[in-house]
Amino acid sequence: MAGGITETGEPYSAFVGLVYMFNLIVGTGALTMPKAFAMAGWVVSITLISFLGFMSYMTTTFVIEAMAAANAQLRWKRREQEEIDDSDSTSEYSDDDVMVRGRSEPETKPILSVQRSGGHVDHFDIVERVEMGQMASMFFNKVGVNMFYICIIVYLYGDLAIYAAAVPISLMEVACGNHSCSAGGVKYNDTDPCWGSVTRKDAYRVFLGVFTLLLGPFTFFNAQKTKYLQILTSLMRWIAFTMMIILALIRIGKGDSEGKPPAASLSGVPNLFGVCVYSFMCQHSLPSLVTPISNKKHVGKLVFADYVLILGFYVLLSFTAIFCFNSSYLYDMYTLNFTDNCKVLDIPVLRYFLGLFPVFTISTNFPIIAVTLRNNWKTLFHRDGGTYPWVVDRVVFPLITLVPPIVVAFCTHNLESLVGITGAYAGTGIQYIIPAFLVYHARRHLEPVMGRDAVNKHQSPFRHAFWVWFVLAWAGSCLMFVTANIILTDTKK
């Protein structure tokens, strides 16, 4: 996930919603963006990130439209149930009365013709939180629902693997790096010593083991009441981002910068694509984010403004990074460029803060993502009326949630590849394919019920069917391009 989990409860204003959405999207992906930006070249990067931001904005509007359609369908079903209950209550009348009522009010009459007296009701008003899994159950068939959960599960596995690798990497760099201000711009290898005969790779695995022992047990329980912890980590995140941008700008302004990035390098495009998709990810959290907004009249403008601000932030962070630092020395985790380079930052406390910043922020999100993944596994295999044995519920599901990402993190700590692959495959499904199918099937489901004249005030600006097929075609072509590039790269090796 790009950012932290947004907890909702009490209604909040549109401005607060804008801030929440900004915090949700801008997270771990932003820290891996500068290196991907440098590898693809700044002209290609700015073009691709702008286009992918536009595509993400489009599918975000698709999800919001589907949420409104889901709310309308839920109201219609409740209205039908009320009619059935009312018809049951007519048993005290004569059979002729019941027959008349039955002929005049069929079960499937359009919702617009059964308005209650007492004023107009906007059936598309988003007042009930309908998660993407519930929308999938409403609009997809059984195969589609299963594919949805598989896509979500794969994405969350990638998320956990990224988190499980990012924290030990940061700890290893802080513990094994040379902080004497004499090692700036040095690139270390995994086989270099850390503590005596212990190599950096060994130290990474030790920290990974400690990370697993400390945070892994949370997978077996429920993570709740993390609101204030999320506020604290968001505050730390913005202090760190602001520091990095200002420090890079100061160095560039002094003329001490080392960066001479290329204008274009097509070999870096596939990985940049994955990183950008991952960095714009928010579609799966929109129901929790949009529903509590008290006045949804300007939700469309809010989302557009958020994407413009986020795009501007990514460009600012990446441009200052690639012109401040030599591209060949940029770390996968951008914060690490400030830990051993006193030319940029010579205050030890602040260097340690930036070096350890991902540890604090990512560690708070890991248990929440793990519990979310565990619950999705349970939902995928759930059968109506059935319950799981205690061992399966409390042991098997947590283990299949925790073990795979830890194994992946043990085998590789290449964050650039982990983020790129997660974004390129599972991220493409969540950000492009699922929203496109959701809005397509939502429109088809509601048209017979609501009628062609019904107006969804949350309808996407991209309402023509062409845009749905364009998104699906784009997603399919990107998957083929990324897969072909991986195969060709492996063949050359």
* Main sheet: strands, sense, barrel: 2 strands, antiparallel
- The name CATH uses for the topology is Amino acid/polyamine transporter I
Distance between the termini: 31 Å
Structural class: mainly alpha
Query: Which H/E pattern describes the elements?
Result: HHHHHHEEHHHHHHHHH
In the CATH hierarchy, the architecture is Up-down Bundle
CATH homology superfamily: Amino acid/polyamine transporter I
Low-confidence runs of at least 5 consecutive residues: 1-8, 97-109, 111-119
Trace the largest sheet across and list its strands: 1-2
Number of helices: 15
Overall pLDDT score: 82
| Overall strand count | 2
Biased composition (Acidic residues): 82-97
Keywords: Glycoprotein, Membrane, Transmembrane, Transmembrane helix
Membrane topology: Multi-pass membrane protein
Domain Amino acid transporter transmembrane: 13-67, 135-444
How does this structure look, described?
With 493 residues, this protein is mainly α. 67% of the residues lie in helices and 1% in strands. The protein has 15 helices and 2 strands. A two-stranded antiparallel sheet has the order 1-2. A hairpin with a 2-residue loop joins strand 1 (193-195) and strand 2. Helix 6 runs antiparallel to helix 14 and helix 8 packs across helix 11 (299-324).
Which helices and strands appear, and what pairs or packs with what?
Elements: H1 14-25, H2 28-40, H3 42-88, H4 95-104, H5 132-139, H6 142-176, E1 193-195, E2 198-199, H7 200-215, H8 227-254, H9 269-279, H10 286-290, H11 299-324, H12 348-381, H13 390-411, H14 415-450, H15 465-492
Antiparallel strand pairs: 1-2
Helix pairs in contact: 1-11, 2-3, 2-9, 2-11, 3-9, 3-11, 3-14, 5-14, 6-7, 6-12, 6-13, 6-14, 8-11, 8-12, 9-14, 12-13, 14-15
